[in-house]
């Protein structure tokens, strides 16, 4: 039932229509006093009465329906308390009926959202800096699917640039095919680092690298074969990480894909008189009021740039997917780049420029223990996941040494801890990562939620809950608060989609788990007699299902035992 509407229908005020009254009905802040409230202040002037009097008159005029427990005038507000039994029954029945579809919606029906996320650079390490884009993007992907959108996940690979020329030179001088096939990115990285060292004393290597990159540009067969192979090796390796994080893509069209798609865009820019030549380079200048430096489109030597490829990609995505929105989950360091990109498209006269959204996020730093760094201060994401898993295993061995399938559980807990830790704060905030923090079983963490989930599973396994449900057993303070949280899940999913904020879901899951644990303590479920149990266990089952469903939106799996 939509209580706001039902309550608005009860309120009669002279000269005020239902349409005016409805938006004023709010969810009460102090849940002890009321569930919904209606402020009367707005009408004081027209009715020439004090809000207190108006509130009293409203209360007197209402004949209390069954779904309301009490109506009271307090300081110019009309406070409504819902009939708890009625409400609890309604929520439990609704959620039970919907099952795994609870929280789904059709707001996205017929609309496509493109999400550009992870977008790693080929032949470079998959490091901690890519964690946020990868899991925020993957989570938004799942959230929009749940909201009924058609979603296109795009890994805009950084697969173009002079580094490939360097890599070819390095491979020809020191590379071992077998070794690279076996050890993948790590082997590539080693020869790449070696190239940089050697090039310091032998700058000719850089010229050689440039000439090999030129060969890639010219589609030379040998150069292309090597280029494709480096790409393949990198993708094969990162795929393992994507699997662990439950991340998927519908397209791996990266920068090189746009090689032959930039020319028409450049031509259009010129035809529309938007380009200028400055010291031989092609640029687009912005109005002074924008306060932005010009966007560099082509260098003096004719080379295209990151921005040129993104321009071509924007058009390709619009033409291919006809998106309703096109998101870019990229660190805030690239704010200017995206502002320029969107502005150029707007200047070209395309109103869909307004549908392109940069979804920025803060930086990740590592606090506390020193991490294994194989090269300079790069922290490999894979190492972080492995360490988190090892630490999770250690904790499990202390807490529950006889647990079955420990390795699998440790993987879910370790990886889950890393993901949950990275998604729990507003995305724009910088993250200071620490293993102890994310693996704390008592904190605002993945393991805490997973532990709660396992507790639900164990309760449901131990106790038979097939009896008739007596909803009067669910009206105590802790139950009622829990039911209200359960009721909010669909709004939470919608809200996080609207704000591009998986943290809204993450924090909700934590509140749900906390409230469940209060309920669990209050209700003493394992001890209460059978007649009482069914109602409580129905709630346990619902909480368990929502936790699982919501955690899956973050890419986290929950073990049934831990
Ligand atoms: N590869 C880039 C980087 O690692 C991110 C690309 C983001 N996507 C885009 N369409 N520009 O910085």
Describe this protein with a few key phrases.
21 helices; flat; binds arginine
Descriptive account of the structure:
- α7 (163-174) packs across α9, α7 (163-174) crosses α10 (204-217) and α15 (381-399) packs across α16 (406-423).
- The chain is of the alpha/beta class and 562 residues long.
- It is built from 21 helices and 13 strands.
- β3 (68-74) and β4 form a beta hairpin.
- Strands 1-2-4-3 form a four-stranded antiparallel β-sheet. It has a four-stranded parallel β-sheet with strand order 6-5-10-11, sandwiched between helices. It has a three-stranded antiparallel β-sheet with strand order 7-8-9.
- The longest helix is centred in the middle third of the chain and has 25 residues, at 221-245.
- Helix content is 53%, strand content 10%.
- It has helices spanning 3-10, 18-21, 44-47, 51-61, 84-98, 131-146, 163-174, 177-183, 185-201, 204-217, 221-245, 263-271, 306-321, 335-347, 381-399, 406-423, 435-438, 446-462, 477-499, 502-523, 530-554; strands at residues 26-27, 36-39, 68-74, 77-82, 112-116, 150-154, 275-278, 281-284, 295-298, 325-329, 356-359, 364-366, 431-433.
- Bound molecules: arginine.
- The site of arginine (ARG) has 9 residues, from α13.
């Amino acid at each position: 039932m939509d209580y706001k509407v039902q309550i608005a229908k009860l309120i009669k005020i002279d000269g005020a229509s239902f349409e005016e009254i409805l938006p004023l009905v709010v969810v009460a802040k102090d849940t002890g006093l009321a569930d919904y409230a209606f402020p009367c202040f707005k009408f004081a002037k027209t009715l020439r009465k004090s809000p207190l009097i108006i509130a009293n008159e409203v209360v007197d005029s209402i004949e209390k329906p069954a779904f309301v427990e009490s109506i009271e005038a307090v300081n110019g507000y009309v406070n409504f308390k819902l009939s708890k039994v009625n409400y609890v029954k309604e929520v439990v029945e609704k959620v039970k009926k919907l099952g795994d579809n609870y929280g789904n919606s059709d707001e996205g029906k017929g609309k496509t959202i493109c999400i550009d996320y992870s977008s790693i650079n080929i032949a470079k390490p998959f490091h901690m800096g890519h964690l946020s884009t990868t899991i925020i993007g993957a989570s938004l992907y799942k959230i929009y699917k749940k909201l009924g959108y058609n979603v296109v996940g795009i890994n805009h690979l950084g697969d173009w640039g002079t580094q490939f020329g360097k890599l070819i030179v390095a491979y020809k001088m020191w590379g071992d095919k077998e070794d690279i096939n076996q050890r993948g990115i790590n082997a590539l990285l080693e020869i790449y680092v070696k190239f940089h060292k050697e090039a310091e004393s032998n700058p000719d290597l850089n010229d050689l690298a440039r000439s090999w990159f030129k060969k890639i540009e010219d589609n030379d067969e040998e150069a292309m074969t090597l280029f494709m192979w480096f790409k393949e090796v990198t993708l094969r390796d990162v795929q393992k990480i994507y699997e662990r994080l439950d991340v998927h893509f519908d397209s791996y069209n990266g920068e090189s894909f746009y090689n032959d798609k930039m020319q028409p865009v450049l031509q259009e820019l010129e035809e529309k008189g938007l380009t200028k030549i400055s010291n031989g380079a092609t640029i687009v200048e912005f109005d002074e009021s924008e306060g932005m430096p010009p966007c560099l489109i082509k260098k003096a030597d004719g080379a295209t740039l990151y921005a040129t490829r993104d321009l071509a990609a924007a058009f390709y995505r619009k033409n291919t997917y006809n998106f309703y929105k096109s998101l870019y989950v990229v660190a805030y360091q690239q704010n200017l780049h995206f502002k320029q990109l969107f502005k150029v498209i707007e200047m070209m006269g395309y109103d869909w420029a307004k549908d392109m959204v940069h979804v920025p996020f803060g930086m990740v730093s590592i606090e506390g223990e020193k991490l294994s760094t194989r090269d300079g201060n790069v922290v490999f994401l894979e190492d972080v996941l492995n360490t988190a898993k090892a630490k999770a295993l250690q904790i499990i061995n202390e807490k529950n040494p006889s647990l079955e399938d420990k390795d699998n559980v440790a993987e879910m807990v370790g990886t889950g801890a890393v993901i949950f830790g990275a998604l729990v704060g507003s995305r724009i905030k910088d993250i200071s990562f620490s293993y102890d923090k994310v693996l704390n079983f008592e904190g605002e963490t993945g393991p805490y939620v997973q532990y709660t989930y396992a507790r639900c599973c164990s309760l449901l396994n131990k106790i038979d809950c097939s009896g008739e449900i007596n909803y009067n057993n669910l009206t105590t303070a802790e139950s009622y608060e829990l039911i209200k949280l359960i009721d909010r899940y669909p709004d939470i999913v919608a809200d996080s989609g609207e704000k591009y904020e998986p943290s809204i879901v993450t924090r909700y899951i934590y509140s749900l788990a906390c409230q469940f644990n209060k309920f669990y303590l209050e209700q003493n479920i394992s001890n209460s007699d059978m007649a009482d149990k069914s109602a409580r266990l129905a709630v346990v089952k619902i909480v368990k299902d929502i936790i699982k469903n919501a955690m899956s939106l973050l890419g986290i799996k929950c073990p049934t035992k831990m």
